[in-house]
Amino acid sequence: YTLTGKFALAAAVILIVLGGVTFWPSGNGKWWLEPPAAWGQAITKSLEKINALIYREGYAFVGDYGSTHVSGSWNRLYKAPDRQRTDRYFHDALVGTTWEVPGDPGYVLRYSVSYEYQCYTIETYAAPESKADPVEMLRYYVNLLDKADRTLDPQTFEDKECVGFEVAAPRYGGSPKQPINRIWFAKDTKLPVRIEHHGMPITGQPEQTLTQIQDQFQYASEVPVDLFEPRIPEGFVNEHPDAIRKARERQEKGEMTYANVPAGLKDKVLAAFRGM
């Protein structure tokens, strides 16, 4: 679908990455082996300069014996203090986009577009009392580093040398049944590169767990407003995807019902129904 390419190009062109953001210098030592109090505060301070955040979020199903199946569905999230956008993908195909942007004073407009069913909806809801923080999630995990159970062996993600920390949920008051978190930071900038949530339970499937992976982080000190501008493709209808899906199913069932019926007999049957 050509719109996918247009959105990808817009994201690449409009994003203003790290404009004017300076980070605490790493020096020549292995900072991740030192007490996290000082450099954890430095990372938190650097995150205060970030006003827009983009990242990918996906899932993997893990069986009892370690077998892994990566879900074909994943999201790319765009977050700013007063607006956000979610692109939904199935493998490499963009299937839907949702924008949440300011509306009338005290309200938020939610635009949802389904490229699969070529339709859209527009909803209004009351705005939250306080603005969202695009890096709240990252700041939360940085604050957990002094509770880390262990330092992970360095790995390379997205061509960045990273060091990771593992934190079990019980270490910060969570249930033993909650997942283990692994947070990976770039050695040079100390910014989060990858967050993994292992062991998330699946309702009704005790033999499997979920692993949530958040990666491909992009940071911006300025909010590229055009990136959050709702775009409804020409020709799309104002209808919920469920309504379109049900209509298609009814049409397909009708076509299947008469698939092997001769044309003349089909006309007689329809005429009889109309007469009734």
Describe this structure in a few short sentences.
Helix content is 22%, strand content 39%.
What is the residue-averaged pLDDT?
81
What is the overall silhouette? elongated
Q: What assembly state would you assign to the polypeptide chains in this entry?
A: single chain
Quickly give the structural class.
alpha+beta
Distance between the termini: 45 Å
Strand content: 35-45%
* Tally of DSSP β-strands: 12
Tell me what the structure shows.
With 276 residues, the protein is of the alpha+beta class. The protein is built from five helices and twelve strands. It has helices at residues 2-14, 36-47, 136-142, 241-257, 263-275, and strands at residues 52-63, 68-80, 83-90, 93-102, 107-114, 119-126, 150-157, 160-168, 180-186, 192-201, 208-220, 237-238. The protein has a twelve-stranded mixed sheet with strand order 7-8-9-10-11-1-2-3-4-5-6-12, with helices on one face.
